[in-house]
Amino acid sequence: MTDGLQAERTPAGRRRPPRRAGRRRPVGEPPPLPRDIRGVAWLWIGAVAALAVVVALGYVSGVSGRGQRTVDEVVARSMARIRADRLHRTAEQLHEAFDWTVLLIAFRWMVVVALLVARRWRHIAVFAGTVIAVGALTLWMPTAGPEGTGVVGHPSQAAAGLAVTLLGVVYGLAPRGPWRSAARASTWILLAGLWAVLLVTDQNTFTEVLTGLVIGIAVPFLAYRIFTPEAVFPVTYRRGKAAHLDVTGRRGEAIMEACRDQLGLPVARVAPFGLAGSGGSTPLRMDLEDGGVLFGKLYATSHLRADRWYKLGRTILYGALEDEHSFNSVRRMVEYEDHMLRYLRDHDVPTAEPIGFLELTPEREYVLVTGFVEGATEILDAKVDERVIRSGLDLIRSLWGAGVAHRDVKPSNLLVRDGEVILIDDAFCQVRPSPWRQSVDLANMLLTLALRSDPRTVYVIATQVFTPDEVAEAIAATHGVTIPSQLRTLLRHDDRNLVEEFRSLVRPGLSMSRAALKFVLSAPEVSVVIPGIKSSAQAEENAGESDGQYKLVGDIFESEDIEAGFGGDA
Q1: Comparing C-alpha atoms, which of 187, 184, 208, 189 is closest to residue 198?
Q2: What whole-number distance in Å separates Cα of residue 305 and Cα of residue 443?
Q3: pLDDT tens-digit profile of 269-314?
Q4: Residue 337 contacts residue 368 (beta carbons within 8 Å)
Protein backbone atom coordinates (compact mmCIF):
# COMPACT_ATOMS: atom_id res chain seq x y z
CA MET A 1 0.00 0.00 0.00
CA THR A 2 1.58 3.26 -1.13
CA ASP A 3 -0.17 6.64 -1.02
CA GLY A 4 -3.58 4.99 -1.05
CA LEU A 5 -2.74 3.03 -4.19
CA GLN A 6 -2.74 -0.72 -4.33
CA ALA A 7 -1.15 -2.73 -7.12
CA GLU A 8 -2.42 -6.29 -7.54
CA ARG A 9 -1.03 -9.17 -9.55
CA THR A 10 -3.06 -11.48 -11.69
CA PRO A 11 -2.51 -15.26 -11.66
CA ALA A 12 -0.60 -14.87 -14.93
CA GLY A 13 1.75 -12.37 -13.29
CA ARG A 14 0.58 -9.31 -15.24
CA ARG A 15 0.44 -6.19 -13.13
CA ARG A 16 -2.91 -4.51 -12.76
CA PRO A 17 -3.07 -0.72 -12.76
CA PRO A 18 -2.84 0.74 -9.25
CA ARG A 19 -6.21 1.92 -8.03
CA ARG A 20 -7.68 3.84 -5.14
CA ALA A 21 -10.82 2.84 -3.34
CA GLY A 22 -13.93 3.91 -5.21
CA ARG A 23 -16.15 6.70 -3.89
CA ARG A 24 -19.74 5.89 -3.00
CA ARG A 25 -22.16 8.30 -4.65
CA PRO A 26 -24.24 9.98 -1.92
CA VAL A 27 -27.99 9.63 -1.95
CA GLY A 28 -29.51 12.32 -4.14
CA GLU A 29 -26.35 13.03 -6.14
CA PRO A 30 -26.98 12.60 -9.89
CA PRO A 31 -25.09 9.91 -11.83
CA PRO A 32 -22.09 10.90 -13.96
CA LEU A 33 -24.31 11.26 -17.03
CA PRO A 34 -27.82 12.29 -15.90
CA ARG A 35 -30.81 11.65 -18.08
CA ASP A 36 -31.66 14.40 -20.53
CA ILE A 37 -34.43 15.92 -18.40
CA ARG A 38 -32.93 19.25 -17.52
CA GLY A 39 -32.94 22.86 -18.62
CA VAL A 40 -36.02 23.86 -20.59
CA ALA A 41 -37.50 20.38 -20.08
CA TRP A 42 -38.62 21.43 -16.62
CA LEU A 43 -40.51 24.36 -18.18
CA TRP A 44 -42.64 22.01 -20.25
CA ILE A 45 -43.11 19.62 -17.33
CA GLY A 46 -44.39 22.61 -15.35
CA ALA A 47 -46.67 23.60 -18.24
CA VAL A 48 -48.22 20.12 -18.34
CA ALA A 49 -48.67 20.19 -14.57
CA ALA A 50 -50.35 23.62 -14.82
CA LEU A 51 -52.78 22.30 -17.44
CA ALA A 52 -53.65 19.40 -15.19
CA VAL A 53 -54.37 21.80 -12.33
CA VAL A 54 -56.57 23.97 -14.58
CA VAL A 55 -58.60 20.95 -15.73
CA ALA A 56 -58.98 19.74 -12.14
CA LEU A 57 -60.20 23.16 -11.01
CA GLY A 58 -62.63 23.22 -13.90
CA TYR A 59 -64.29 20.07 -12.59
CA VAL A 60 -64.63 21.24 -8.99
CA SER A 61 -65.34 24.96 -9.49
CA GLY A 62 -65.79 27.60 -12.16
CA VAL A 63 -62.63 29.51 -11.32
CA SER A 64 -60.56 28.24 -14.24
CA GLY A 65 -63.44 28.69 -16.69
CA ARG A 66 -64.05 32.27 -15.64
CA GLY A 67 -60.37 33.05 -15.87
CA GLN A 68 -60.09 31.63 -19.39
CA ARG A 69 -63.16 33.52 -20.61
CA THR A 70 -61.80 36.77 -19.17
CA VAL A 71 -58.54 36.34 -21.06
CA ASP A 72 -60.37 35.37 -24.25
CA GLU A 73 -62.63 38.46 -24.05
CA VAL A 74 -59.66 40.79 -23.60
CA VAL A 75 -57.91 39.29 -26.61
CA ALA A 76 -61.12 39.30 -28.68
CA ARG A 77 -61.62 43.03 -28.08
CA SER A 78 -58.08 43.75 -29.22
CA MET A 79 -58.68 41.65 -32.33
CA ALA A 80 -61.92 43.46 -33.26
CA ARG A 81 -60.09 46.23 -35.13
CA ILE A 82 -57.83 43.77 -36.96
CA ARG A 83 -60.79 41.69 -38.12
CA ALA A 84 -62.20 44.74 -39.93
CA ASP A 85 -59.20 45.48 -42.10
CA ARG A 86 -57.45 43.81 -45.04
CA LEU A 87 -55.48 41.41 -42.82
CA HIS A 88 -58.70 39.72 -41.78
CA ARG A 89 -59.77 39.21 -45.39
CA THR A 90 -56.33 37.86 -46.30
CA ALA A 91 -56.42 35.39 -43.43
CA GLU A 92 -59.90 34.22 -44.37
CA GLN A 93 -58.90 33.72 -48.01
CA LEU A 94 -55.85 31.78 -46.91
CA HIS A 95 -57.99 29.63 -44.65
CA GLU A 96 -60.52 28.92 -47.41
CA ALA A 97 -57.90 28.24 -50.10
CA PHE A 98 -56.25 25.31 -48.34
CA ASP A 99 -57.62 22.22 -46.68
CA TRP A 100 -55.37 22.26 -43.63
CA THR A 101 -56.31 18.74 -42.57
CA VAL A 102 -55.23 17.23 -45.89
CA LEU A 103 -52.01 19.27 -45.91
CA LEU A 104 -51.17 18.19 -42.36
CA ILE A 105 -51.74 14.50 -43.11
CA ALA A 106 -49.60 14.75 -46.25
CA PHE A 107 -46.86 16.51 -44.31
CA ARG A 108 -46.89 13.80 -41.65
CA TRP A 109 -46.50 11.06 -44.23
CA MET A 110 -43.57 12.95 -45.71
CA VAL A 111 -41.95 12.98 -42.27
CA VAL A 112 -42.55 9.24 -41.88
CA VAL A 113 -41.03 8.51 -45.28
CA ALA A 114 -37.99 10.65 -44.48
CA LEU A 115 -37.51 8.79 -41.17
CA LEU A 116 -37.83 5.47 -42.98
CA VAL A 117 -35.18 6.46 -45.49
CA ALA A 118 -32.92 7.53 -42.61
CA ARG A 119 -33.72 4.22 -40.84
CA ARG A 120 -34.62 5.92 -37.58
CA TRP A 121 -37.05 3.29 -36.36
CA ARG A 122 -37.22 4.51 -32.79
CA HIS A 123 -37.93 8.07 -33.94
CA ILE A 124 -40.75 6.75 -36.13
CA ALA A 125 -42.31 5.00 -33.15
CA VAL A 126 -42.06 8.12 -30.99
CA PHE A 127 -43.45 10.30 -33.80
CA ALA A 128 -46.46 8.04 -34.32
CA GLY A 129 -47.06 7.73 -30.58
CA THR A 130 -46.92 11.47 -29.95
CA VAL A 131 -49.26 12.25 -32.86
CA ILE A 132 -51.82 9.79 -31.46
CA ALA A 133 -51.37 11.02 -27.88
CA VAL A 134 -51.70 14.70 -28.82
CA GLY A 135 -54.77 14.00 -30.93
CA ALA A 136 -56.43 12.11 -28.09
CA LEU A 137 -55.63 14.82 -25.54
CA THR A 138 -57.04 17.63 -27.69
CA LEU A 139 -60.29 15.72 -28.14
CA TRP A 140 -60.60 14.83 -24.45
CA MET A 141 -59.33 17.91 -22.58
CA PRO A 142 -62.10 20.47 -21.93
CA THR A 143 -61.64 24.22 -21.99
CA ALA A 144 -63.97 27.10 -21.14
CA GLY A 145 -66.79 27.36 -23.66
CA PRO A 146 -69.08 30.37 -24.16
CA GLU A 147 -70.47 31.50 -20.83
CA GLY A 148 -74.04 30.48 -20.15
CA THR A 149 -74.30 28.07 -23.11
CA GLY A 150 -73.04 24.92 -21.42
CA VAL A 151 -70.96 24.17 -24.52
CA VAL A 152 -67.50 22.85 -23.64
CA GLY A 153 -64.58 23.96 -25.77
CA HIS A 154 -61.44 21.99 -26.65
CA PRO A 155 -57.81 22.84 -27.35
CA SER A 156 -57.06 23.86 -30.91
CA GLN A 157 -56.49 20.70 -32.95
CA ALA A 158 -54.84 22.69 -35.72
CA ALA A 159 -52.25 24.24 -33.38
CA ALA A 160 -51.54 20.98 -31.53
CA GLY A 161 -51.37 18.93 -34.74
CA LEU A 162 -48.96 21.28 -36.50
CA ALA A 163 -46.78 21.57 -33.37
CA VAL A 164 -46.37 17.81 -32.87
CA THR A 165 -45.59 17.36 -36.56
CA LEU A 166 -42.99 20.11 -36.70
CA LEU A 167 -41.27 18.78 -33.57
CA GLY A 168 -41.02 15.42 -35.32
CA VAL A 169 -38.95 17.18 -37.96
CA VAL A 170 -36.84 19.05 -35.40
CA TYR A 171 -35.93 16.02 -33.26
CA GLY A 172 -36.11 13.30 -35.87
CA LEU A 173 -34.52 14.80 -38.97
CA ALA A 174 -32.52 17.92 -38.02
CA PRO A 175 -28.96 17.19 -36.77
CA ARG A 176 -27.88 18.87 -33.58
CA GLY A 177 -26.24 22.23 -34.16
CA PRO A 178 -27.03 24.97 -36.69
CA TRP A 179 -29.52 22.82 -38.59
CA ARG A 180 -31.56 22.07 -35.48
CA SER A 181 -31.42 25.70 -34.36
CA ALA A 182 -32.74 26.77 -37.76
CA ALA A 183 -35.48 24.12 -37.58
CA ARG A 184 -36.52 25.35 -34.13
CA ALA A 185 -36.67 28.95 -35.31
CA SER A 186 -38.75 27.96 -38.35
CA THR A 187 -41.09 26.00 -36.08
CA TRP A 188 -41.73 28.97 -33.82
CA ILE A 189 -42.36 31.25 -36.83
CA LEU A 190 -44.87 28.81 -38.36
CA LEU A 191 -46.67 28.27 -35.05
CA ALA A 192 -46.87 32.02 -34.42
CA GLY A 193 -48.29 32.53 -37.92
CA LEU A 194 -50.89 29.80 -37.38
CA TRP A 195 -51.82 31.30 -34.01
CA ALA A 196 -52.43 34.67 -35.67
CA VAL A 197 -54.55 33.14 -38.45
CA LEU A 198 -56.69 31.18 -35.98
CA LEU A 199 -57.31 34.26 -33.84
CA VAL A 200 -57.96 36.66 -36.71
CA THR A 201 -60.39 34.30 -38.42
CA ASP A 202 -62.04 33.53 -35.07
CA GLN A 203 -61.50 29.78 -35.51
CA ASN A 204 -60.32 29.36 -31.91
CA THR A 205 -60.07 31.48 -28.81
CA PHE A 206 -56.75 32.61 -27.34
CA THR A 207 -56.77 30.00 -24.55
CA GLU A 208 -57.78 27.22 -26.91
CA VAL A 209 -54.80 27.94 -29.16
CA LEU A 210 -52.51 28.33 -26.14
CA THR A 211 -53.65 25.01 -24.67
CA GLY A 212 -53.25 23.28 -28.04
CA LEU A 213 -49.71 24.61 -28.44
CA VAL A 214 -48.74 23.55 -24.92
CA ILE A 215 -49.99 20.02 -25.55
CA GLY A 216 -48.54 19.86 -29.07
CA ILE A 217 -45.09 20.98 -27.90
CA ALA A 218 -44.75 19.52 -24.39
CA VAL A 219 -45.79 15.95 -25.22
CA PRO A 220 -43.39 15.35 -28.14
CA PHE A 221 -40.59 17.39 -26.53
CA LEU A 222 -40.61 15.23 -23.40
CA ALA A 223 -41.16 12.02 -25.39
CA TYR A 224 -38.12 12.63 -27.59
CA ARG A 225 -36.02 13.58 -24.55
CA ILE A 226 -37.00 10.38 -22.72
CA PHE A 227 -37.20 7.76 -25.48
CA THR A 228 -34.73 9.08 -28.05
CA PRO A 229 -32.16 11.12 -26.10
CA GLU A 230 -29.64 12.77 -28.37
CA ALA A 231 -26.75 11.25 -26.42
CA VAL A 232 -27.91 7.71 -27.23
CA PHE A 233 -29.82 8.12 -30.51
CA PRO A 234 -28.07 11.00 -32.27
CA VAL A 235 -29.54 12.42 -35.46
CA THR A 236 -26.62 12.41 -37.85
CA TYR A 237 -25.98 11.87 -41.53
CA ARG A 238 -22.27 11.14 -41.27
CA ARG A 239 -21.00 7.82 -42.48
CA GLY A 240 -20.19 5.22 -39.89
CA LYS A 241 -21.84 2.61 -37.73
CA ALA A 242 -24.76 3.65 -35.58
CA ALA A 243 -23.21 1.72 -32.68
CA HIS A 244 -20.37 4.23 -32.41
CA LEU A 245 -21.48 6.98 -30.05
CA ASP A 246 -19.80 10.33 -29.56
CA VAL A 247 -17.49 10.22 -26.52
CA THR A 248 -16.51 13.87 -26.55
CA GLY A 249 -18.05 16.61 -24.45
CA ARG A 250 -20.29 15.66 -21.54
CA ARG A 251 -20.12 11.89 -22.11
CA GLY A 252 -16.32 11.86 -22.18
CA GLU A 253 -16.20 13.84 -18.94
CA ALA A 254 -18.72 11.45 -17.39
CA ILE A 255 -16.57 8.43 -18.31
CA MET A 256 -13.51 9.96 -16.66
CA GLU A 257 -15.51 10.96 -13.58
CA ALA A 258 -17.07 7.50 -13.26
CA CYS A 259 -13.73 5.73 -13.68
CA ARG A 260 -12.19 7.85 -10.93
CA ASP A 261 -15.10 7.49 -8.50
CA GLN A 262 -16.22 3.92 -9.16
CA LEU A 263 -12.94 2.13 -9.93
CA GLY A 264 -10.45 4.48 -8.31
CA LEU A 265 -8.54 4.91 -11.58
CA PRO A 266 -7.79 8.51 -12.68
CA VAL A 267 -8.28 8.78 -16.44
CA ALA A 268 -6.69 11.65 -18.35
CA ARG A 269 -8.11 11.02 -21.82
CA VAL A 270 -10.83 8.96 -23.51
CA ALA A 271 -10.86 8.39 -27.26
CA PRO A 272 -12.44 5.93 -29.74
CA PHE A 273 -10.24 2.97 -30.64
CA GLY A 274 -10.55 0.18 -33.20
CA LEU A 275 -13.94 1.23 -34.57
CA ALA A 276 -13.53 -0.76 -37.79
CA GLY A 277 -13.84 -4.14 -36.09
CA SER A 278 -16.69 -3.27 -33.73
CA GLY A 279 -20.36 -3.14 -34.61
CA GLY A 280 -22.10 -3.79 -31.29
CA SER A 281 -20.48 -1.24 -28.97
CA THR A 282 -18.23 1.82 -28.89
CA PRO A 283 -14.62 0.71 -28.19
CA LEU A 284 -12.47 3.17 -26.25
CA ARG A 285 -8.86 3.76 -25.35
CA MET A 286 -8.59 5.19 -21.83
CA ASP A 287 -5.24 6.78 -20.96
CA LEU A 288 -4.51 6.93 -17.23
CA GLU A 289 -2.80 9.85 -15.57
CA ASP A 290 0.13 7.63 -14.54
CA GLY A 291 0.79 6.63 -18.17
CA GLY A 292 -1.10 3.34 -18.12
CA VAL A 293 -3.74 2.42 -20.68
CA LEU A 294 -7.11 0.69 -20.30
CA PHE A 295 -9.61 -0.53 -22.86
CA GLY A 296 -13.30 0.26 -22.57
CA LYS A 297 -16.51 -0.73 -24.35
CA LEU A 298 -19.38 1.74 -24.12
CA TYR A 299 -22.80 0.07 -24.11
CA ALA A 300 -26.03 2.04 -24.32
CA THR A 301 -29.72 1.46 -24.96
CA SER A 302 -29.11 1.60 -28.71
CA HIS A 303 -26.74 -1.37 -28.47
CA LEU A 304 -29.29 -3.36 -26.48
CA ARG A 305 -31.92 -2.58 -29.10
CA ALA A 306 -29.54 -3.61 -31.91
CA ASP A 307 -28.81 -6.88 -30.11
CA ARG A 308 -32.53 -7.63 -29.89
CA TRP A 309 -33.16 -6.93 -33.57
CA TYR A 310 -30.05 -8.91 -34.58
CA LYS A 311 -31.16 -12.00 -32.68
CA LEU A 312 -34.73 -11.66 -33.88
CA GLY A 313 -33.49 -11.41 -37.47
CA ARG A 314 -31.34 -14.52 -37.09
CA THR A 315 -34.30 -16.39 -35.63
CA ILE A 316 -36.47 -15.41 -38.60
CA LEU A 317 -33.80 -16.28 -41.17
CA TYR A 318 -32.34 -19.44 -39.68
CA GLY A 319 -34.81 -20.64 -37.07
CA ALA A 320 -34.31 -20.87 -33.32
CA LEU A 321 -30.55 -21.03 -32.80
CA GLU A 322 -28.79 -21.77 -29.56
CA ASP A 323 -29.07 -19.16 -26.83
CA GLU A 324 -30.46 -16.43 -29.07
CA HIS A 325 -32.38 -14.83 -26.22
CA SER A 326 -31.68 -11.13 -25.92
CA PHE A 327 -30.72 -9.32 -22.73
CA ASN A 328 -33.45 -7.44 -20.89
CA SER A 329 -31.28 -4.46 -19.89
CA VAL A 330 -27.95 -2.82 -20.65
CA ARG A 331 -26.81 -3.57 -17.10
CA ARG A 332 -27.33 -7.32 -17.61
CA MET A 333 -25.42 -7.23 -20.88
CA VAL A 334 -22.39 -5.58 -19.29
CA GLU A 335 -22.54 -7.72 -16.16
CA TYR A 336 -22.57 -10.86 -18.28
CA GLU A 337 -19.50 -9.90 -20.30
CA ASP A 338 -17.61 -8.88 -17.17
CA HIS A 339 -18.51 -12.25 -15.63
CA MET A 340 -17.32 -14.13 -18.72
CA LEU A 341 -14.00 -12.30 -18.68
CA ARG A 342 -13.44 -13.40 -15.10
CA TYR A 343 -14.57 -16.95 -15.88
CA LEU A 344 -12.12 -17.22 -18.76
CA ARG A 345 -9.34 -15.71 -16.66
CA ASP A 346 -9.99 -18.28 -13.92
CA HIS A 347 -9.58 -21.04 -16.52
CA ASP A 348 -6.34 -19.55 -17.92
CA VAL A 349 -7.82 -18.67 -21.31
CA PRO A 350 -5.68 -15.88 -22.85
CA THR A 351 -7.97 -12.86 -22.94
CA ALA A 352 -8.10 -9.24 -21.78
CA GLU A 353 -7.72 -8.62 -18.05
CA PRO A 354 -11.10 -7.74 -16.44
CA ILE A 355 -11.07 -4.50 -14.44
CA GLY A 356 -14.78 -3.85 -13.86
CA PHE A 357 -17.52 -1.71 -15.35
CA LEU A 358 -18.80 1.84 -14.94
CA GLU A 359 -22.33 3.13 -14.60
CA LEU A 360 -22.86 6.38 -16.49
CA THR A 361 -26.66 6.49 -16.55
CA PRO A 362 -28.56 3.85 -14.54
CA GLU A 363 -30.09 1.20 -16.83
CA ARG A 364 -29.03 3.16 -19.92
CA GLU A 365 -25.26 3.60 -20.33
CA TYR A 366 -22.37 1.52 -18.98
CA VAL A 367 -18.69 1.09 -19.82
CA LEU A 368 -16.93 -2.28 -19.54
CA VAL A 369 -13.30 -1.71 -18.55
CA THR A 370 -10.51 -4.21 -19.25
CA GLY A 371 -6.77 -4.18 -19.49
CA PHE A 372 -5.26 -2.91 -22.73
CA VAL A 373 -3.33 -5.60 -24.59
CA GLU A 374 -0.13 -3.64 -25.13
CA GLY A 375 2.04 -4.50 -28.11
CA ALA A 376 -0.58 -6.72 -29.76
CA THR A 377 -1.76 -6.52 -33.37
CA GLU A 378 -4.79 -7.94 -35.07
CA ILE A 379 -4.09 -11.37 -36.50
CA LEU A 380 -4.53 -10.17 -40.10
CA ASP A 381 -1.66 -7.71 -39.56
CA ALA A 382 0.60 -10.20 -37.81
CA LYS A 383 2.97 -12.81 -39.19
CA VAL A 384 1.16 -16.13 -38.83
CA ASP A 385 3.78 -18.87 -38.57
CA GLU A 386 3.54 -22.34 -37.07
CA ARG A 387 3.94 -20.95 -33.57
CA VAL A 388 0.98 -18.60 -33.98
CA ILE A 389 -1.11 -21.34 -35.58
CA ARG A 390 -0.39 -23.66 -32.66
CA SER A 391 -1.23 -20.89 -30.19
CA GLY A 392 -4.56 -20.20 -31.88
CA LEU A 393 -5.51 -23.87 -31.84
CA ASP A 394 -4.38 -24.22 -28.23
CA LEU A 395 -6.68 -21.30 -27.42
CA ILE A 396 -9.67 -23.20 -28.81
CA ARG A 397 -8.58 -26.29 -26.89
CA SER A 398 -8.46 -24.21 -23.68
CA LEU A 399 -11.98 -22.96 -24.40
CA TRP A 400 -13.13 -26.54 -24.79
CA GLY A 401 -11.42 -27.43 -21.53
CA ALA A 402 -13.22 -24.58 -19.76
CA GLY A 403 -16.54 -25.71 -21.23
CA VAL A 404 -17.02 -22.45 -23.13
CA ALA A 405 -17.88 -21.49 -26.69
CA HIS A 406 -16.85 -18.00 -27.79
CA ARG A 407 -19.40 -17.88 -30.64
CA ASP A 408 -17.67 -14.97 -32.41
CA VAL A 409 -14.21 -16.15 -33.46
CA LYS A 410 -13.10 -13.80 -36.25
CA PRO A 411 -9.97 -11.79 -37.14
CA SER A 412 -10.97 -8.61 -35.30
CA ASN A 413 -11.37 -10.61 -32.07
CA LEU A 414 -7.95 -12.29 -32.30
CA LEU A 415 -4.81 -10.41 -31.30
CA VAL A 416 -1.21 -11.64 -31.59
CA ARG A 417 1.54 -10.64 -29.18
CA ASP A 418 4.95 -12.39 -29.12
CA GLY A 419 3.54 -15.38 -30.96
CA GLU A 420 0.58 -15.79 -28.56
CA VAL A 421 -3.00 -15.50 -29.80
CA ILE A 422 -5.26 -13.56 -27.41
CA LEU A 423 -9.05 -13.72 -27.58
CA ILE A 424 -11.10 -10.56 -26.98
CA ASP A 425 -14.76 -9.46 -27.14
CA ASP A 426 -16.29 -12.19 -25.00
CA ALA A 427 -19.84 -10.82 -24.98
CA PHE A 428 -21.31 -13.84 -26.82
CA CYS A 429 -19.55 -16.53 -24.79
CA GLN A 430 -21.66 -19.46 -23.65
CA VAL A 431 -20.86 -21.84 -20.81
CA ARG A 432 -21.69 -25.52 -21.34
CA PRO A 433 -22.45 -25.17 -25.04
CA SER A 434 -23.37 -27.99 -27.38
CA PRO A 435 -20.52 -29.90 -29.06
CA TRP A 436 -21.68 -28.45 -32.37
CA ARG A 437 -21.17 -24.90 -31.11
CA GLN A 438 -17.65 -25.79 -29.97
CA SER A 439 -16.92 -27.23 -33.40
CA VAL A 440 -18.04 -23.95 -34.96
CA ASP A 441 -15.41 -22.09 -32.90
CA LEU A 442 -12.73 -24.48 -34.14
CA ALA A 443 -13.91 -24.11 -37.74
CA ASN A 444 -13.74 -20.32 -37.62
CA MET A 445 -10.29 -20.45 -36.04
CA LEU A 446 -9.08 -22.78 -38.82
CA LEU A 447 -10.40 -20.44 -41.50
CA THR A 448 -8.94 -17.34 -39.81
CA LEU A 449 -5.49 -18.90 -39.51
CA ALA A 450 -5.63 -20.11 -43.12
CA LEU A 451 -6.23 -16.55 -44.34
CA ARG A 452 -2.66 -15.67 -43.36
CA SER A 453 -1.07 -19.06 -44.10
CA ASP A 454 -2.28 -22.13 -45.99
CA PRO A 455 -4.95 -24.74 -45.16
CA ARG A 456 -2.61 -27.75 -45.29
CA THR A 457 -0.25 -26.34 -42.65
CA VAL A 458 -3.17 -25.39 -40.44
CA TYR A 459 -4.75 -28.82 -40.88
CA VAL A 460 -1.57 -30.71 -40.02
CA ILE A 461 -1.05 -28.71 -36.82
CA ALA A 462 -4.75 -28.98 -35.97
CA THR A 463 -4.58 -32.80 -36.05
CA GLN A 464 -1.79 -32.57 -33.47
CA VAL A 465 -4.02 -30.60 -31.07
CA PHE A 466 -7.36 -32.23 -31.93
CA THR A 467 -8.32 -35.66 -33.20
CA PRO A 468 -8.96 -36.02 -36.95
CA ASP A 469 -12.64 -36.61 -36.18
CA GLU A 470 -12.85 -33.33 -34.23
CA VAL A 471 -11.24 -31.43 -37.10
CA ALA A 472 -13.58 -33.09 -39.59
CA GLU A 473 -16.58 -32.19 -37.45
CA ALA A 474 -15.38 -28.59 -37.41
CA ILE A 475 -15.09 -28.49 -41.20
CA ALA A 476 -18.54 -30.04 -41.44
CA ALA A 477 -19.86 -27.17 -39.31
CA THR A 478 -18.59 -24.58 -41.81
CA HIS A 479 -21.67 -22.89 -43.18
CA GLY A 480 -22.79 -19.35 -43.92
CA VAL A 481 -24.85 -19.01 -40.74
CA THR A 482 -21.95 -20.18 -38.56
CA ILE A 483 -19.29 -17.86 -40.04
CA PRO A 484 -19.16 -14.28 -38.66
CA SER A 485 -19.83 -11.61 -41.27
CA GLN A 486 -16.30 -10.17 -41.18
CA LEU A 487 -14.74 -13.59 -41.74
CA ARG A 488 -17.29 -14.41 -44.44
CA THR A 489 -16.39 -11.20 -46.31
CA LEU A 490 -12.66 -11.97 -46.12
CA LEU A 491 -13.21 -15.50 -47.41
CA ARG A 492 -15.25 -14.16 -50.31
CA HIS A 493 -12.43 -11.83 -51.38
CA ASP A 494 -9.68 -14.44 -51.02
CA ASP A 495 -8.51 -15.96 -54.30
CA ARG A 496 -8.49 -19.41 -52.73
CA ASN A 497 -11.54 -21.46 -51.78
CA LEU A 498 -10.38 -22.18 -48.26
CA VAL A 499 -13.45 -24.13 -47.24
CA GLU A 500 -13.12 -26.54 -50.15
CA GLU A 501 -9.39 -26.92 -49.55
CA PHE A 502 -10.07 -27.91 -45.96
CA ARG A 503 -12.76 -30.34 -47.08
CA SER A 504 -10.32 -32.02 -49.43
CA LEU A 505 -7.96 -32.59 -46.50
CA VAL A 506 -10.51 -34.32 -44.27
CA ARG A 507 -9.64 -38.02 -43.99
CA PRO A 508 -11.73 -40.32 -46.23
CA GLY A 509 -12.99 -42.26 -43.23
CA LEU A 510 -15.14 -39.29 -42.12
CA SER A 511 -16.50 -37.39 -45.10
CA MET A 512 -18.59 -34.29 -44.92
CA SER A 513 -21.83 -36.20 -45.38
CA ARG A 514 -20.89 -38.66 -42.66
CA ALA A 515 -19.96 -35.94 -40.23
CA ALA A 516 -23.20 -34.11 -40.98
CA LEU A 517 -25.20 -37.28 -40.32
CA LYS A 518 -23.36 -37.71 -37.04
CA PHE A 519 -24.40 -34.19 -36.05
CA VAL A 520 -28.01 -34.96 -36.86
CA LEU A 521 -28.03 -38.20 -34.87
CA SER A 522 -26.39 -36.47 -31.90
CA ALA A 523 -29.39 -34.19 -31.37
CA PRO A 524 -31.81 -35.28 -28.63
CA GLU A 525 -34.73 -34.18 -30.81
CA VAL A 526 -33.93 -36.90 -33.36
CA SER A 527 -35.56 -39.54 -31.16
CA VAL A 528 -38.77 -37.51 -31.50
CA VAL A 529 -38.48 -36.66 -35.17
CA ILE A 530 -37.37 -40.19 -36.21
CA PRO A 531 -38.74 -42.44 -33.46
CA GLY A 532 -38.14 -45.59 -35.46
CA ILE A 533 -34.34 -45.26 -35.46
CA LYS A 534 -33.32 -46.79 -32.14
CA SER A 535 -30.41 -48.97 -33.25
CA SER A 536 -27.70 -49.16 -35.89
CA ALA A 537 -29.54 -52.00 -37.64
CA GLN A 538 -32.63 -49.89 -38.13
CA ALA A 539 -30.49 -46.99 -39.31
CA GLU A 540 -28.80 -49.29 -41.86
CA GLU A 541 -32.18 -50.51 -43.06
CA ASN A 542 -33.33 -46.92 -43.62
CA ALA A 543 -30.06 -46.00 -45.32
CA GLY A 544 -30.40 -49.00 -47.61
CA GLU A 545 -33.48 -47.37 -49.11
CA SER A 546 -31.43 -44.35 -50.21
CA ASP A 547 -30.12 -43.68 -53.69
CA GLY A 548 -26.94 -45.64 -52.98
CA GLN A 549 -24.77 -42.56 -52.78
CA TYR A 550 -23.66 -43.27 -49.22
CA LYS A 551 -22.52 -46.43 -47.47
CA LEU A 552 -24.45 -48.08 -44.70
CA VAL A 553 -24.55 -46.27 -41.43
CA GLY A 554 -22.52 -49.04 -39.82
CA ASP A 555 -19.65 -48.09 -42.16
CA ILE A 556 -20.01 -44.40 -41.40
CA PHE A 557 -19.22 -44.63 -37.73
CA GLU A 558 -19.43 -47.22 -34.99
CA SER A 559 -22.76 -48.14 -33.44
CA GLU A 560 -21.65 -46.91 -30.01
CA ASP A 561 -21.31 -43.45 -31.56
CA ILE A 562 -24.95 -43.61 -32.62
CA GLU A 563 -26.06 -44.71 -29.18
CA ALA A 564 -24.02 -41.92 -27.58
CA GLY A 565 -25.55 -39.51 -30.05
CA PHE A 566 -29.06 -40.32 -28.87
CA GLY A 567 -27.85 -39.48 -25.39
CA GLY A 568 -27.26 -35.93 -26.59
CA ASP A 569 -23.44 -36.01 -26.50
CA ALA A 570 -21.68 -36.85 -29.75
Answers
A1: 208
A2: 29
A3: 998 887 665 666 788 999 998 888 999 999 887 777 777 766 666 6
A4: yes
